[in-house]
Amino acid sequence: MKLGKNNFVVTFKTEDEVLEYFKMHNADEQRLLWLGFFICNNYIAQRLEDEGMELAKPWPPKEKK
Length: 65
Known about the structure:
Layout: H1 15-23, H2 27-50
């Protein structure tokens, strides 16, 4: 699958726009929206890593043993 925008859904440009949209829904709908958001986020991050792009490190950083 080629990574690209889809005209079927809205494209948010800021985190505030995403939060505002999610807040328009009830708690159950918000849980599903967040689940989909993070699944897509991980999918995109994996695709970028597969292409050799270095991503930001997770926060908080893991403690060294």
